[in-house]
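Internal ticket - ligand job 164, heme C:
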Amino acid sequence: MGPPPQHVAAALKTLKTSLKTRLVGAMKSGGPVAALSACKADAGTLTAAAQTAGVKLGRTSHRLRNPANAPPAWAKELVDEAAKRRRDKVPARMTVDRGDGKRGYLEMIGMGGVCTACHGPAADLDPKVSAALAKHYPDDAATGFNTGDVRGWFWAEFSMTKKK
Ligand code: HEC
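stdout (C-alpha coordinates):
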Protein backbone atom coordinates (compact mmCIF):
# COMPACT_ATOMS: atom_id res chain seq x y z
CA MET A 1 0.00 0.00 0.00
CA GLY A 2 1.08 3.52 -0.72
CA PRO A 3 1.70 6.61 1.33
CA PRO A 4 -0.74 7.77 4.00
CA PRO A 5 -3.09 10.74 3.48
CA GLN A 6 -1.38 14.06 3.10
CA HIS A 7 -2.14 15.36 6.60
CA VAL A 8 -0.65 12.20 8.13
CA ALA A 9 2.46 12.39 5.95
CA ALA A 10 2.84 16.03 6.97
CA ALA A 11 2.68 15.20 10.69
CA LEU A 12 5.23 12.42 10.20
CA LYS A 13 7.50 14.77 8.33
CA THR A 14 7.36 17.24 11.22
CA LEU A 15 8.33 14.45 13.60
CA LYS A 16 11.21 13.17 11.44
CA THR A 17 12.61 16.66 10.97
CA SER A 18 12.38 17.64 14.62
CA LEU A 19 13.94 14.40 15.86
CA LYS A 20 16.79 14.61 13.40
CA THR A 21 17.44 18.30 14.08
CA ARG A 22 17.55 17.66 17.82
CA LEU A 23 19.78 14.60 17.44
CA VAL A 24 22.25 16.09 15.01
CA GLY A 25 22.41 19.39 16.92
CA ALA A 26 23.11 17.62 20.21
CA MET A 27 25.71 15.33 18.61
CA LYS A 28 27.52 18.32 17.16
CA SER A 29 27.48 20.41 20.30
CA GLY A 30 27.98 17.75 22.97
CA GLY A 31 28.84 14.39 21.43
CA PRO A 32 26.94 11.11 21.75
CA VAL A 33 26.50 11.04 25.53
CA ALA A 34 24.88 14.49 25.54
CA ALA A 35 22.83 13.53 22.50
CA LEU A 36 21.67 10.42 24.27
CA SER A 37 20.35 12.53 27.13
CA ALA A 38 18.70 14.84 24.61
CA CYS A 39 16.92 11.91 22.95
CA LYS A 40 15.82 10.57 26.30
CA ALA A 41 14.54 13.94 27.44
CA ASP A 42 12.95 15.17 24.22
CA ALA A 43 11.84 12.26 22.00
CA GLY A 44 8.47 12.07 23.74
CA THR A 45 7.89 15.82 23.69
CA LEU A 46 8.79 16.09 20.02
CA THR A 47 6.48 13.19 19.21
CA ALA A 48 3.58 14.79 21.08
CA ALA A 49 4.28 18.14 19.42
CA ALA A 50 4.17 16.65 15.90
CA GLN A 51 0.72 15.15 16.41
CA THR A 52 -2.21 16.97 14.82
CA ALA A 53 -5.97 16.65 15.26
CA GLY A 54 -6.91 13.00 14.74
CA VAL A 55 -3.33 11.87 14.09
CA LYS A 56 -1.43 9.95 16.76
CA LEU A 57 2.26 9.18 16.20
CA GLY A 58 5.01 7.05 17.67
CA ARG A 59 8.17 5.09 17.04
CA THR A 60 8.66 1.44 17.71
CA SER A 61 10.92 -1.51 16.99
CA HIS A 62 11.27 -5.28 17.34
CA ARG A 63 14.29 -4.46 19.55
CA LEU A 64 13.43 -1.68 21.92
CA ARG A 65 15.50 0.74 23.87
CA ASN A 66 12.63 2.38 25.72
CA PRO A 67 9.91 -0.13 26.67
CA ALA A 68 7.40 2.73 26.40
CA ASN A 69 7.95 2.53 22.61
CA ALA A 70 6.38 -0.93 22.38
CA PRO A 71 4.23 -1.28 19.25
CA PRO A 72 0.48 -0.58 19.44
CA ALA A 73 -1.57 -3.80 19.44
CA TRP A 74 -2.45 -3.53 15.71
CA ALA A 75 1.24 -3.18 14.77
CA LYS A 76 2.84 -5.84 16.95
CA GLU A 77 2.50 -8.78 14.60
CA LEU A 78 3.63 -6.78 11.55
CA VAL A 79 6.71 -5.53 13.38
CA ASP A 80 7.57 -9.02 14.62
CA GLU A 81 6.98 -10.64 11.22
CA ALA A 82 9.09 -8.02 9.44
CA ALA A 83 11.95 -8.76 11.82
CA LYS A 84 12.07 -12.36 10.60
CA ARG A 85 12.49 -11.42 6.96
CA ARG A 86 15.33 -10.00 4.90
CA ARG A 87 15.06 -6.27 4.56
CA ASP A 88 14.45 -6.40 0.81
CA LYS A 89 11.42 -8.60 1.51
CA VAL A 90 9.93 -6.13 4.00
CA PRO A 91 7.59 -3.42 2.70
CA ALA A 92 8.79 0.04 3.69
CA ARG A 93 5.19 1.18 4.25
CA MET A 94 2.17 -0.70 5.51
CA THR A 95 -1.37 0.47 6.09
CA VAL A 96 -3.71 -1.49 8.33
CA ASP A 97 -7.51 -1.28 8.38
CA ARG A 98 -8.48 -1.16 12.06
CA GLY A 99 -12.23 -1.03 11.43
CA ASP A 100 -14.69 1.86 11.82
CA GLY A 101 -12.71 3.97 9.38
CA LYS A 102 -9.63 3.77 11.58
CA ARG A 103 -6.27 3.11 10.01
CA GLY A 104 -2.81 2.25 11.23
CA TYR A 105 0.28 3.12 9.25
CA LEU A 106 3.85 1.85 9.59
CA GLU A 107 6.90 3.35 7.89
CA MET A 108 10.28 1.66 8.07
CA ILE A 109 13.19 3.38 9.79
CA GLY A 110 16.47 2.23 8.31
CA MET A 111 19.71 2.17 10.24
CA GLY A 112 21.99 4.97 9.04
CA GLY A 113 25.61 5.87 9.73
CA VAL A 114 24.79 8.54 12.34
CA CYS A 115 22.77 5.98 14.31
CA THR A 116 25.78 3.72 14.91
CA ALA A 117 27.06 5.76 17.87
CA CYS A 118 24.08 4.60 19.93
CA HIS A 119 22.58 1.60 18.11
CA GLY A 120 25.63 -0.04 16.51
CA PRO A 121 27.41 -3.25 17.57
CA ALA A 122 28.18 -3.15 21.30
CA ALA A 123 31.92 -3.52 20.71
CA ASP A 124 31.95 -0.34 18.61
CA LEU A 125 30.22 1.88 21.15
CA ASP A 126 32.10 4.55 23.08
CA PRO A 127 32.40 3.14 26.63
CA LYS A 128 30.74 6.30 27.91
CA VAL A 129 27.77 5.65 25.68
CA SER A 130 27.59 2.04 26.88
CA ALA A 131 27.67 3.24 30.49
CA ALA A 132 24.93 5.82 29.88
CA LEU A 133 22.78 3.22 28.14
CA ALA A 134 23.22 0.76 31.01
CA LYS A 135 22.21 3.46 33.45
CA HIS A 136 19.17 4.87 31.63
CA TYR A 137 18.00 1.78 29.74
CA PRO A 138 18.81 -1.34 31.76
CA ASP A 139 16.73 -3.49 29.38
CA ASP A 140 18.15 -1.95 26.20
CA ALA A 141 17.81 -4.27 23.21
CA ALA A 142 18.61 -1.60 20.62
CA THR A 143 22.31 -2.08 19.97
CA GLY A 144 23.93 -4.45 17.49
CA PHE A 145 22.34 -2.91 14.41
CA ASN A 146 24.35 -2.49 11.21
CA THR A 147 23.90 0.17 8.55
CA GLY A 148 21.03 -0.84 6.29
CA ASP A 149 19.22 -2.91 8.93
CA VAL A 150 15.61 -2.23 9.80
CA ARG A 151 16.04 -0.26 13.01
CA GLY A 152 12.35 0.20 13.60
CA TRP A 153 9.18 1.94 12.46
CA PHE A 154 7.34 5.18 12.64
CA TRP A 155 3.67 4.51 13.26
CA ALA A 156 0.59 6.63 12.86
CA GLU A 157 -3.02 6.15 13.83
CA PHE A 158 -5.64 8.17 12.01
CA SER A 159 -9.20 8.04 10.82
CA MET A 160 -10.45 8.20 7.24
CA THR A 161 -13.47 10.26 8.27
CA LYS A 162 -11.95 12.77 10.66
CA LYS A 163 -9.56 14.88 8.68
CA LYS A 164 -8.00 18.15 9.63
C1 HEC B 1 22.98 9.81 20.71
C2 HEC B 1 22.43 8.49 20.79
C3 HEC B 1 21.46 8.07 19.70
C4 HEC B 1 21.64 8.13 18.35
C5 HEC B 1 22.84 8.66 17.60
C6 HEC B 1 20.45 7.56 17.77
N1 HEC B 1 19.58 7.14 18.73
FE1 HEC B 1 17.83 6.19 18.45
N2 HEC B 1 17.48 6.21 20.43
C7 HEC B 1 18.33 6.75 21.37
C8 HEC B 1 17.66 6.79 22.65
C9 HEC B 1 18.23 7.33 23.96
C10 HEC B 1 16.37 6.24 22.44
C11 HEC B 1 15.25 6.08 23.44
C12 HEC B 1 14.44 7.36 23.42
C13 HEC B 1 13.27 7.28 24.32
O1 HEC B 1 13.48 7.15 25.53
O2 HEC B 1 12.14 7.33 23.80
C14 HEC B 1 16.30 5.90 21.03
C15 HEC B 1 15.20 5.33 20.44
C16 HEC B 1 15.07 5.04 19.11
C17 HEC B 1 13.91 4.45 18.49
C18 HEC B 1 12.58 4.11 19.18
C19 HEC B 1 12.42 2.67 19.51
C20 HEC B 1 13.15 2.23 20.76
O3 HEC B 1 14.01 1.35 20.62
O4 HEC B 1 12.86 2.75 21.86
C21 HEC B 1 14.18 4.33 17.17
C22 HEC B 1 13.27 3.75 16.10
C23 HEC B 1 15.50 4.87 16.97
N3 HEC B 1 16.03 5.29 18.17
C24 HEC B 1 16.13 4.97 15.74
C25 HEC B 1 17.30 5.67 15.52
C26 HEC B 1 17.84 5.95 14.20
C27 HEC B 1 17.23 5.49 12.89
C28 HEC B 1 18.97 6.68 14.40
C29 HEC B 1 19.87 7.29 13.33
C30 HEC B 1 19.24 8.26 12.47
C31 HEC B 1 19.16 6.84 15.83
N4 HEC B 1 18.12 6.22 16.48
C32 HEC B 1 20.22 7.47 16.42
C33 HEC B 1 19.61 7.19 21.17
C34 HEC B 1 20.16 7.45 19.93
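Auto-summary: Residues 6-159 form one domain. Residues 6-50 form the longest helix (45 residues).
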